[in-house]
């Protein structure tokens, strides 16, 4: 039976190789290949090329595992393990040349559903920053091989809080209304454009908290494990599993304080 740390070692090799590829493609120039849920929700040639490379490397090493990727969908395996992949998280940042994008690869046990899966290994690589965030279940979290931990507890009024918005304008309006009620109750808000890197920012203490509604499994599969292994509470509402409905990640007391504000009517 392959251990979580062995899975992490393979996932890291694949993610770093893919990070090198997308950095080269970025330097060569990026082209939009198509749009998905809206004109703002784009996929680039590099997204597709990166996911194809990741799938081939996984299939070569572990042909019996399942796959769930943002661009090419799902394929069941026979091993009970599934690789959950976002080849470029922060695609719009990548398109504009904003250096906040990442390859996100996780290995989960059980059905590839955030509500029920057990994440075993996760790696998030930002090639523009030469940063490799990694974690295996029970093995702690690292940045470039060095241990990372969430920031110490703070009062919510002093918390730097990350969030994100969906690709549909009407959803963004509702999400912005939540911020109107929140912005005066925290230190400040950051919208950095990559859920995977926002979760890694919580893991390293660069953010005190992160929350978002509407995330896809591949957005948070790896970063969620990294943040949890760094000491964050990563959950949905009321301690349920994180899901597309809601995700919060923070040091536990900050997560509870943030969630209680977000639970107020109108949020
Ligand atoms: C992005 C997420 C981000 C969210 C964006 C988008 P993508 O993923 O990482 O947090 O706010 O709307 O979903 O589309 O760049 O892979």
From TrEMBL:
Pfam families: Inositol_P
Protein EC: 3.1.3.25
Enzyme class: hydrolase
Taxonomy, superkingdom: Bacteria
InterPro entries, alphabetized: IMPase, Inositol_monoP_metal-BS, Inositol_monophosphatase-like, Inositol_monophosphatase_CS
Catalytic activity: a myo-inositol phosphate + H2O = myo-inositol + phosphate
Cofactor(s) listed in the protein's UniProt record: Mg(2+)
SUPFAM superfamilies from the UniProt entry: Carbohydrate phosphatase
Keywords for the protein's UniProt record, in alphabetical order: Hydrolase, Magnesium, Metal-binding
The family this protein is said to belong to: Belongs to the inositol monophosphatase superfamily.
Record's protein name: Inositol-1-monophosphatase
Organism: Leifsonella bigeumensis
Species lineage: Bacteria, Bacillati, Actinomycetota, Actinomycetes, Micrococcales
């Amino acid at each position: 039976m392959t251990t979580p740390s062995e899975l992490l070692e393979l996932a890291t090799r694949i993610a770093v190789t893919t990070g090198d590829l997308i950095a080269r493609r970025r330097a060569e120039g990026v082209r939009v290949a198509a749009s998905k849920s809206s004109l703002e929700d784009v996929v680039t040639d590099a997204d597709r090329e990166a996911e194809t490379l990741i799938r081939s490397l996984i299939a070569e090493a572990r042909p019996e595992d399942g796959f769930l990727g943002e661009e090419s969908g799902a394929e069941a395996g026979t091993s009970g393990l599934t690789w959950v992949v976002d080849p470029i998280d922060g695609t719009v940042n990548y398109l504009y040349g904003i250096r906040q994008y990442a390859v996100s690869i996780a290995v989960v046990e059980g059905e590839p559903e955030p509500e029920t899966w057990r994440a075993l290994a996760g790696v998030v690589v930002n090639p523009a920053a030469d940063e490799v965030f990694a974690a295996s279940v029970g093995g702690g979290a690292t940045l470039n091989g060095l241990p990372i931990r969430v920031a110490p507890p703070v009062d919510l009024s002093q918390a730097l809080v990350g969030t994100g918005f969906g690709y549909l304008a009407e959803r963004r309006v509702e999400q912005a209304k939540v911020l109107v009620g929140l912005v005066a109750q925290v230190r400040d808000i950051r919208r950095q454009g990559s859920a995977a890197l926002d979760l890694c920012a919580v893991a390293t203490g660069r953010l005190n908290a992160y929350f978002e509604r509407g995330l896809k499994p591949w957005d948070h599969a790896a970063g969620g494990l990294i943040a949890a292994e760094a000491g964050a509470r990563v959950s949905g509402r009321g301690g349920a599993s994180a899901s597309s409905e809601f995700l919060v990640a923070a040091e536990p007391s900050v997560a509870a304080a943030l969630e209680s504000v977000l639970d107020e009517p109108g949020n």
